[in-house]
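Notes from hallway chat w/ T.B., transcribed later so I don't forget. T.B. wanted the structure written out for a chain they're using in a teaching module, and asked if we could keep both sequence and structure tokens in one place. Agreed to drop them here.
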Amino acid sequence: MAQLNISKFFNNEATALIGARKNCIDIHGSDIRAAGNEVEIAVRAWLQRMLPDNVSVGHGHIIDHKSAISPQLDCILRDRSHIPTLFTAADGTEYTPIDSVFAYGEIKSTYYKASEYIQNFTKTKNRIKENLEHVLIKNTVKDGVKPDSLLYHMFLGSTQPYLNQIFTFMLFIDSGDASTDEITEIYSTTDDSLLPDIAVFLNGYVVIKASIEGDKLRIYKYSISAPPEVGWKILPAPQIEGMETTHEGKHLGFLYYCLLNHIKESALEGPNLTAYLKDLLVLSKSTMISIDPQQPCVGDGEEHAAPNT
């Protein structure tokens, strides 16, 4: 019986993204922004193809019910089954309700230390955390089924305390001038809640919260959910003799696993449109004109023939 070679599949997918980066550089040369835009488009197209049908992949801004908006984001994973975008401006800028967001991330063609990509991401995440309102949905079966547990929470089977946590990520197609010493310095001096839940340097390593328990590595998808004693780990994928998976294929596959697992354990409820669009729904009693309903005519003295059938 034929079998799918998953390792080779992700090798090929990683190779395609690396090829997209190379083609962009060949075309745009030193225009980093233009090349970066092309890579963002390629990665978003890859995610849209790979992720389940209920996920819409876009970019732009996140907006809350108070009309506060996030900075521009390279990639937003949205719940297509509710309201993936509140509206799209004429220039193509998309505004996604925070209640429809599974995850958001930044995509970079090449890591440049001088650009301070991770530091800038933490500022963006802090602005979202401080300025946008996001009410978390408690998982009513987290600690077992109780009288107030909701049936769809039981069917979901999530082990997370909240069902609408927003996962954050960064993806660098090329590691550029990144070094483990520099990454260690950034992560050891930054509030955990502001760092991406996962950072993937496609041809280098993955940075994620993890702990070693015996001979096993336990991964914590959400950095804020990890116990305080658990730290960040820089994990280069080992190259095992006889295995076909490349470093790039493994790292891309690991990012895909984290995103897919997060979406599987999420249950978004979508935005309350009345709250989001309340400024459009303001009416004035003083200027209202009432049109009374017509009253039926009774006994007007005329005979009417029944219609032919």
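Follow-up for T.B.: The two ends are 67 Å apart (CA to CA). Might be a good example for the class.
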